[in-house]
UniProtKB/TrEMBL annotation:
Belongs to the HPPK family. One of its GO terms (molecular function) is kinase activity. Keywords: ATP-binding, Folate biosynthesis, Kinase, Nucleotide-binding, Transferase. Residues 100-111 form the 7,8-dihydro-6-hydroxymethylpterin-pyrophosphokinase domain. It comes from Limimaricola hongkongensis DSM 17492. Catalyzes the transfer of pyrophosphate from adenosine triphosphate (ATP) to 6-hydroxymethyl-7,8-dihydropterin, an enzymatic step in folate biosynthesis pathway. Pfam families: HPPK (PF01288). Its EC number is 2.7.6.3. This is 2-amino-4-hydroxy-6-hydroxymethyldihydropteridine pyrophosphokinase. The keyword Nucleotide-binding applies.
Length: 195
C-alpha cells in the first residue's frame, strides 16, 4: 500500500467536506453552505465547489436530513492552522459542539491536505478501524489525516468526486472515483442533488 508519513510540500490541495442540518444565522442549511463556501474559498486559491446534495443524517434517525457539499482549495497553510480557520468559520455560523453526531448549523471537515498522513500511519489506522459503537462516543484529540472514514461515506465521496475525482488516498492508493464507485449502491442512492 502506498503511504507517506509526511508530505509538507506547499502549496497543497486541501479537501473539505461541508454539511448542515440545522439553521444558522445565514438561514436554512442550503443558504448556510453557500455562504460557508465563500468563506472557505478565502482560505486559499483556485477553489472548486461541488453542487449541494441532500442526504439522510448519520447515523440513521439522529436528526433532520443534511445538506452536504465538498470543496478543494490550494493553500499554503499547515494543517493545524487550516483546521483552526475552518473551526472559526463554523463558530461564525453558530456551530456549537454539544452532541457527537447531533444536528449542526455547519460542519466543516478537513478531509485531506495533499498526501499528508497525520499523526502517523499507526494513529490513522487506529481511528480508521475504530468500531462504530466507539465512534459515537470517542473523538480524536488531534487532527487525523486523511479523514479516517472518508472512504466509507457517500455523503462525502459523491460531492468530492465533483471537485477532486483524481485525488489519491495516500494510504490505500485509491482515487476518489474508485472509492465512490466501491460504495454500496444504497449509499449512493440516498443522495439527491439540490437544484
Amino acid at each position: 500500500m502506498p503511504h507517506s508519513e509526511q508530505s509538507d510540500a506547499f502549496p497543497a490541495r486541501a479537501l473539505i467536506a461541508l454539511g448542515a442540518n440545522a439553521a444558522s444565522p445565514e438561514g436554512p442549511p442550503a443558504a448556510t453552505l453557500r455562504a460557508a463556501m465563500a468563506a472557505v474559498a478565502r482560505l486559499g486559491r483556485g477553489a472548486r465547489r461541488s453542487r449541494l446534495w441532500r442526504s439522510p443524517a448519520f447515523p440513521a434517525g439522529s436528526g433532520p436530513d443534511f445538506v452536504n457539499a465538498a470543496m478543494a482549495i490550494e493553500t499554503d497553510r499547515p494543517a493545524a492552522e487550516l483546521l483552526a480557520a475552518l473551526h472559526a468559520i463554523e463558530a461564525r455560523f453558530g456551530r456549537e459542539r454539544q452532541a457527537r453526531w447531533g444536528p449542526r448549523s455547519l460542519d466543516l471537515d478537513l478531509l485531506a491536505l495533499g498526501a499528508q498522513i497525520a499523526p502517523d500511519l499507526a494513529g490513522w489506522t487506529l481511528w480508521r478501524d475504530l468500531p462504530l459503537e466507539r465512534q459515537s462516543r470517542e473523538a480524536p484529540d488531534r487532527l487525523i489525516l486523511p479523514h479516517p472514514r472518508l472512504q466509507d461515506r457517500g455523503f462525502v465521496l459523491v460531492p468530492l468526486a465533483e471537485v477532486a475525482p483524481g485525488w489519491r488516498h495516500p494510504v490505500t492508493g485509491l482515487d476518489v472515483m474508485a472509492m465512490r464507485d466501491a460504495l454500496p449502491a444504497q449509499a449512493r442512492a440516498e443522495l439527491a442533488p439540490l437544484g
